Task: structure prediction
Amino acid sequence: MASVQQNGQRFGITEPISLGGPTELDVIKTRELEKHLQDVGLYESKEEAVRREEVLGILDQIVKTWIKTISRAKGLNDELLHVANAKIFTFGSYRLGVHGPGADIDTLCVGPRHATREGDFFGELQRMLSEMPEVTELHPVPDAHVPLMGFKLNGVSIDLLYAQLPLWVIPEDLDISQDSILQNADEQTVRSLNGCRVTDQILRLVPNIQNFRTTLRCMRFWAKRRGVYSNVSGFLGGINWALLVARICQLYPNALPNMLASRFFRVYNQWRWPNPVLLCSMDEGSFGLQVWDPRRNPKDRLHIMPIITPAYPCMNSSYNVSASTLRIMTGEFQRGKEICEAMEANKADWDTLFEPFAFFEAYKNYLQIDISAANVDDLRKWKGWVESRLRQLTLKIERHTYDMLQCHPHPHDFQDASRPLHCSYFMGLQRKQGVPAAEGEQFDIRRTVEEFKHTVNAYTLWIPGMEISVSHIKRRSLPNYVFPGGVRSSHTSKGTWDSNRRSEHRNSSTSSALAATTTTTEMSSESKAGSNSPVDGKKRKWGDNETLTDQLRNSKHIAVSVPVENCEGGSPNPSVGSICSSPMKDYCTNGKSEPISKDPPENVVAFSKEPAESLPIEKIATPQAPSQETEELEESFDFGNQVVEQISHKVAILTATATIPPFEATSNGSAFPNEAVEELEVLPMRQPDAAHRPSVQQRKPIIKLSFTSLGKTNGK
Result:
């Protein structure tokens, strides 16, 4: 394989981190990865591939017939009628070559200026499709951010978008990758064209398409297994993962998928968000379309994990990511990095990396969002609308609690077989890790939930029967239909990487606590030995029946590292631990907002270790949000040189973590000079106004002592 350097071509905005080629081990591991992906069914059969091509051919003939029909109806002359044409393009996973069995095909219909979106695409073409027996499950969505029609053609799922170009004739060899295609195009057409333009640009910007595809299949499968594949839920969708993988391919242009997967986790575990991921320099363009630029656009400064599309107009494809979902994904990157390192030492395998995340074991508290409708068609519409709003609930909870209450949305809905017109969504809840609960603090999110429900019920197509309810539920009260086979396991997962890491973390924490307690006891005895106390010279000994809990209870001034699962709900990644004060006190509130415990402090966070039935959301307590809060929620859219790489890898990643330099207009007025993109300062994030913060009782700082140095001092 010829290296990129030898070909004289460079991909990306920075130099590669490594140009080294694969080792024998990389070749073996890559074969194992490809076999694993085959065994789990990620590749479609040849018969299905042929059927997809046939369906696309049929669809192309349908739109050509449609354009002839409406051209004749609009009275075009014979010459224009003869050359009237519409063309089908594909994009998304199918165009990238990473689709699996049963996946839908993202398609774009490009039509001439006289074929309108409202009257012709959602009119005549929709009518034609509805009358064809081979077309089923036709669902037009004309009011979506990117209008589309979804349907099945001969059993193959199709999402069809429409772009109306200001041309009288659409040539059969039309190249939509040229920026000139956007001239005089309406906003919805620009959005519709964006998918195809971005997909084609990605394939042009990666050094080896086959290695890119295998690595992307791997990362998509991993993200789905770990519950972080969902753009609408605030994680990342297909295009986001494709852009991230493409950047790694640029940084390691001669690497095989085994190494690319490993470096994926290493690079993004160290990435300094909100610095953006860029595959190429951003073009200001000449058509006046808005591009992503946090120096000019205030809303762009709110994006915390920007992944920029490479085609003009460059946009942030990951605007849905929130502080909580970024924290979850960062934890998953850390986990992936550790497993890949273990794989290099033959202590783990691909099965370990792809272990599914046990969402309903990770937290003690959940939000359950239940929706229902009168019939199947209404439920489909209602689900689509509610799913698009769930991100706002996460953002509002984070904002109204000043990021102290963290949410982990599950990317999928669940349905009870006994209630076909009902489905549920779940969010894991936990207090911010590493921050001790302050006395006097409470989490009352009733107002937040009511705002969310009010927003959802403002659905323009709402009809009676569309209902939504939100409630707080404990882990032990989760409905059985959320578990595989509808059966709740009697014990937590054991033998997995995650469970082993939790056990190691728990044992480490317990050992540290016991060692600290014992050392403090010895110090206390030594200090008493020099006094005139009646107990001079006596060292306290733990009784045979005294447990570790008793020891911790008696040691009042020690900061103890508590495992994540002992805090409010746990973390999806045990490596992201927390330091809590011990002993830890958790309470829940009753229906009258009174703590259910023996005289706890007022306004304590409503998390409990005690059994509880499903509680209404009114029973969770959070700080009141500012009465007039401005909300800006967007609605858019190794190798040969191992030693050298180990030494310079972190520096290289920081170099690759490039952002746009502070805005200074160039001589031609452009915000993007032709010079190389420089390293930037991190843009400040908006902080809540201190005047609106609830009063929280100040806690005494924890004084950390070095027992070794104190022992020497006492000896002196």
In short: Confidence is low (pLDDT under 50) at residues 1-6, 523-648, 658-716. The first strand starts at residue 87 and ends at 91. The chain has 19 helices and 13 strands. The CA atoms of residues 404 and 679 lie 31 Å apart.
